[in-house]
User: Which sequence fits this backbone?
């Protein structure tokens, strides 16, 4: 496995990499969700292609300095995980090298970022689009994979790629969950024991909404909201139904149920595919555990 600390070194090596070249952008603190994305990247690259993981905590997408300062960092453990997963190259730039001191250019998507997380995190998706475009410029991947847990981010990146005619195919990786349904996230480690139990209400609410969606979008929201209301510690930022491209909720058909909430200082997001006006099937998201019938300790 090769490690590159600068974009110049990365570009110099890129011409020797066999294609397809599949990029997995991360901010480090790798967990099983990231590992699932790397495994999917390896499948997309095949035995003869190249898998690249970027590890970069992007300061542009943090709206509060304290969130940036407390974001988990363990580069040595991340590099060990990449080696174990058979990653071919890792890009680990320093913020001072990646952005010029007088950096003044950003990339803005102006439609999909006006609601959901974009409504309460101004500038966040500008930072996401800017760093992803810079990574694409340096790595020149044929494919890049992003997790569906950050569904709005995935939609925004796909829109940027389309609108700027970037020669990259964007792949979406399924959300990986704990046995109680909590979506894996680097921020989960901020939760104390009680908060960790309460956090299971997010996925339980989404499942309740999924199974109520046969009655329409409002029925899905009502069912999900009833579950969230059982956990007063959860400060819900939003709970919405959107179409798969994040437009208004459809009267019928495929949609996405999305939620964001805070437990203490930790902000958690999650989402699930629903079928408005149709009976729900079994939730097929991969999990770390095998228990499909989640125990809900926050109800005790």
Assistant:
């Amino acid at each position: 496995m090769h490690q590159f600390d600068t974009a110049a070194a990365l570009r110099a090596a890129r011409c020797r990499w066999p294609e397809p070249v599949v990029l997995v952008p991360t901010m480090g603190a790798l967990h099983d969700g990231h590992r699932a994305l790397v495994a999917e990247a390896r499948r997309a690259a095949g035995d003869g292609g190249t898998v690249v993981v970027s590890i970069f905590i992007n300061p542009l997408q943090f709206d509060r300095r304290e969130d940036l300062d407390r974001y988990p960092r363990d580069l040595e453990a991340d590099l060990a995980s990449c080696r174990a997963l058979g990653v071919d190259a890792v890009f680990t730039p320093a913020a001072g090298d990646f952005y010029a001191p007088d950096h003044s250019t950003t990339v803005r998507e102006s439609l999909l970022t006006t609601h959901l997380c974009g409504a309460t995190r101004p500038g966040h998706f500008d930072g996401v689009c800017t760093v992803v475009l810079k990574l694409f410029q340096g790595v020149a991947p044929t494919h890049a994979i992003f997790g569906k847990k950050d569904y709005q981010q995935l939609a925004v990146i796909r829109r940027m790629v389309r609108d700027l005619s970037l020669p990259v195919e964007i792949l979406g990786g399924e959300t990986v969950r704990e046995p109680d349904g909590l979506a894996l996230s680097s921020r989960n480690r901020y939760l104390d024991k009680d908060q960790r139990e309460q956090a299971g209400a997010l996925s339980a609410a989404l499942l309740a909404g999924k199974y109520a969606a046969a009655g329409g979008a409002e029925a899905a929201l009502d069912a999900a909201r009833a579950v969230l209301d059982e956990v007063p510690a959860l400060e819900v930022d939003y709970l919405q139904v959107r179409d798969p491209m994040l437009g208004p909720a459809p009267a019928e058909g495929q949609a996405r149920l999305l939620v964001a909430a805070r437990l203490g200082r930790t902000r958690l997001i999650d989402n699930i595919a629903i079928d408005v006006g149709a009976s729900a099937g079994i939730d097929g998201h991969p999990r770390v555990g095998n228990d499909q019938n989640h125990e809900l300790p926050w109800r005790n």
